[in-house]
Amino acid sequence: MSESISRRTSRKIRLKNLFVGGDAPITVQSMTNTDTKDVKATHEQIKRLVDAGCDIVRVSVPDEESLKAFAVYTSSFDIPIVADIHFNHKLAIESIKAGAACVRVNPGNIGGKERLTEVVRAASDFGCAVRIGVNAGSLEKKILTKYGKPTPEALAESALYWSKFLEDMGFLNFKVSIKSSNVIVNYKAHMIFAEKSKAPIHLGITEAGIGLYGVVKSSVGIGALLMTGIGDTIRVSLTGDPVREVEVGNYILRCLGLRRDTVEIISCPTCARRKIDVEVLAKKVERKFGNLHIPIKIAVMGCEVNGPGEAKEADCGIAGGKDFSLIFKKGNVVKKVPNHEALGALEEVINELKEERDAG
Ligand code: SF4
After folding, report:
1. Contact residues for 259 (Cβ-Cβ < 8 A; gap 6+)
2. Are residues 116 and 199 in the same domain?
């Protein structure tokens, strides 16, 4: 049985210089939570998101002043910037003209089919993608009346309806998001939709919450769907610094073998054989190597006796000892160094791995 995920065949769309769907790698996105009008703070946050490995950044455009600032972001970053619009279709159109790579609208609150049509026409004229958002909180009255509440069937029906609406206009450069804060409703709605549509899917669990609970809820909700092959771009929604969303999103993809350009750091749970503070060492390794864009697995192990053997699948790592650490590569010990030299020695091994990889 294959150990890799077989992805659903979706349509490939374009967000400026980046593709979503089809055979394009699954991307990680996030959203700024600064005041869009505050150019300094928002610019800085987008930069931090990019540095953390974010592929697509979404920015709210709630008013005219935000629109002016939005144009600054689209002109100063290479990565696709998505305009997030609610209620005001004119702002959607102006954001498209201001260089949005994609505009996110919820048909349920944009003001009817005519206004949505105007937005889609502008997107088509300016080579902008559209994200159709179907949220449990903004379902059309007709569908809510039919199902009584935002059931999976209701969410999928709304998403299919609006997808067909855009397809009938001849516009295919769109993706779909279906959002419920209920992980099971979310899962079932996607299963129904994915079977009947080729549109690429933006995955996320809305209002996942704060701290560890939000991380786990998003990982379960997004991870379960990714494992079935559904999902072309993901956003982890967490209350707090959006950089965390990117880190978690990348980890979800990395765990599933869906993102091959990031470092994965594993560490042992420790036991009575532990010779060092594994948590402290693992954090140092994370700080030093966590943002490298190379596909390697680094292990941090608590003892020299079992460490390298237990981390056989890692590419390299450190097994801590009382005074000396063992540095291992592909399960073999390659160096023994004083503890304070361990990170430097690990870096040398990582560089060797990079060179070997580059040499094919
Ligand atoms: Fe225990 Fe050593 Fe295994 Fe860590 S690597 S769990 S310290 S035996």
Report:
1. 25, 26, 28, 250, 253
2. yes
Pocket test for ligand 1, best of 267, 274, 277, 300 (most atoms within 8 A of CB): 274
Ligand 1 atom index nearest CA of 305 = 2
The number of folded domains in the chain is 2
Place of tokens 């693992």: 282
pTM of the model as a whole: 0.85
Clarify whether residues 202 and 269 are in a common domain: no
Residues 219-270: tens digit of each pLDDT: 999 999 999 999 999 999 999 999 999 999 998 998 898 987 778 899 999 9
Give the torsion sign (CA, 238, 242, 247, 253): positive
Structural domain range at position 59: 13-255
Residues with CB under 6 A from ligand 1: 268-271, 273-274, 301-303, 306-307, 310
Indicate which residue's Cα is closest to atom 6 of ligand 1.
Answer: 270
Report pLDDT digits (tens) over 262-289.
788 999 999 999 989 999 999 999 888 8
Residue 138 domain-assigned (yes or no): yes
Is residue 1 in some structural domain? no
25 and 107 inside one domain: yes
> Is residue 4 domain-resident?
no
- Considering the domain architecture, whether residues 177 and 68 belong to the same structural domain is answered as yes
Give the burial class of 23: count Cβ atoms within 10 A of its Cβ; 0-12 exposed, 13-18 middle, 19 or more buried. Answer: exposed
Q: Give distance in angstroms: CA of 320 to centre of ligand 1.
A: 10
Give the chain's length.
Answer: 360
Strand (E) or helix (H) holding 292: none
